[in-house]
Design brief:
The chain is of the alpha/beta class and 186 residues long. The chain has five helices and six strands, in the order E-E-H-E-H-H-H-E-H-E-E. Strand 2, helix 1 and strand 3 form a beta-alpha-beta unit.
């Protein structure tokens, strides 16, 4: 499936590689888009600070995503937990889409790093920022994929708006620091 991302560049000529932020929209893995007005505003705000912004799309439940074999052990663990909790078929579809979102985010990160010179990016200085489903994705990409030995570019920081990890024990002191924003009524 062809996926897209929007690139937000700071004004002015780039004289040295810039740090960047990868934004991942929310929508419960069933909706949302990289072009949502909130994400466009967020990415415009990071460019005002001299960062490059990337707002990405990822596969959703309606796309009936099939993650690659690299991510099969992640799916297996989530489905074992789904069995334990007795979740519905629709909830299992969401779990499957969440793994596809992880894979799509890793692909976007790899693409950004591979094209760092062309985009005037510093591949060693980037953050991942997600809201809701996007924050779940950001947390899993930055921390949980360590448990599965899935290689990917590693962010310096993760910004989590209303996210969570699906399984316990997937955050360690070895991963990037996190800024977590969560409400008491969530």
């Amino acid at each position: 499936m062809e996926l897209f991302l929007d690139v937000y560049q700071p004004e002015g000529e780039c004289t040295e590689p810039r740090p960047f932020v990868v934004g991942i929209h929310g929508g419960g893995f069933v909706g949302g888009s990289r072009s949502d007005s909130a994400w466009a505003g967020n990415m415009e705000a990071v460019t005002g600070r001299g960062f490059v912004g990337f707002s990405i799309d990822y596969r959703l439940v309606r796309d009936q995503p099939v993650p690659s074999n690299t991510y099969q052990s992640v799916i297996d663990d989530l489905m074992r937990e789904a069995d334990r909790l007795g979740v519905t078929a629709a909830q299992r579809d969401v779990l499957n889409a969440s793994v596809a979102a992880m894979e799509d985010t890793v692909t976007a990160l790899e693409r950004a790093v591979a094209n760092a010179e062309d985009r005037c990016l510093d591949p060693d200085r980037f953050a991942i920022w997600g809201s809701s489903a996007g924050a779940i994705t950001a947390l899993h990409v930055s921390h949980a994929l360590d448990d599965y030995f899935i290689a990917r570019p590693e962010p310096l920081v993760v910004i989590d708006y209303w996210g969570r990890l699906f399984l316990e024990g997937q955050v360690s002191t070895h991963g990037p620091p996190m800024m977590i924003v969560h409400g008491t009524a969530d």
